[in-house]
Amino acid sequence: MRTRLPVTVALATALLLTSCGGDSDDAGGGSGSGDVLRVATEGTYAPFSFHDPDSNELTGYDVEVAQAVGDELGMEVEFSETQFDAIFAGLEADRYDVIANQIGVNPEREEKYLFSTPYTYSNGVVITRADDTSVSSLADIAGKTSAQSTTSNFAEVATEAGATIEAVEGFTQAITLLKQERVDVTVNDSLAFLEYQKTTGDQDVKVAAEIDDQSRSAFAFRQDSADLQGRVDEALESLRADGTLAEISERYFGEDVSAE
């Protein structure tokens, strides 16, 4: 059974977040310097960040890891939910201190943001309709239309493979467009797809190909948050050493994906 978290959820659009952030003394100055760690997440990306269907509480692997880090640091964790394509803009605008949403680390992002040590290792997959036999490798999506959050790592992977991107708000919408035959494929995380099939039993879509490169996911910070980055890394090290990260991972994925 998943642990229900005592989290404070700030459910708001990016516009509302602007006004909320500006009014918060705890949030003033940002960078997690006060007693509150402001964490951005989607809230619609199971099993990493979603709402428990029974309680409607925000939960998920990334949510629990962020909460555990906050507990380790002795800080209250305040979650803000926002669409993925607005999540980095909100970080840059100091609406929160850190992003916890299966954020893949890549060289382009490392030029703009700081990252914690990774706490998730997984692989990307190409998802197609079950009756589509035209894709057996990433190269086969060249010339096809792929549903992606435009600022995601996987959008970049699909673009580099020659696909045309159809912008979506998240994984659920991508699957919907795929089943409606409005797009040909979507590239996403294998763990997200396994969770989707486990919870829905949907056999109309399948994994058509796996991407060789392993994805590393971590917390993302602004460039001026080196102190917070260091403290979060220390917290993650403690949580890894005492088995907390492995315990959270096994509860969501049935295995430890927090280590290589």
From TrEMBL:
Record PROSITE patterns: PROKAR_LIPOPROTEIN, SBP_BACTERIAL_3
Gene3D superfamilies associated with the record: Periplasmic binding protein-like II
One annotated Gene Ontology cellular component of this protein: cell envelope
Listed SMART domains: PBPb
Protein name from the UniProt record: Cystine transport system substrate-binding protein
Record-linked CDD domains: PBP2_Ngo0372_TcyA
Entry similarity comment: Belongs to the bacterial solute-binding protein 3 family.
Keyword Zinc part of the UniProt annotation: no
Source lineage: Bacteria, Bacillati, Actinomycetota, Actinomycetes, Geodermatophilales
Regions crossing the membrane: none
Domain Solute-binding protein family 3/N-terminal: 36-256
Subcellular location: Cell envelope
Keyword check for Signal: yes
Taxonomy, superkingdom: Bacteria
Keywords for this protein: Signal
InterPro entries, per database record: SBP_3_CS, Solute-binding_3/MltF_N
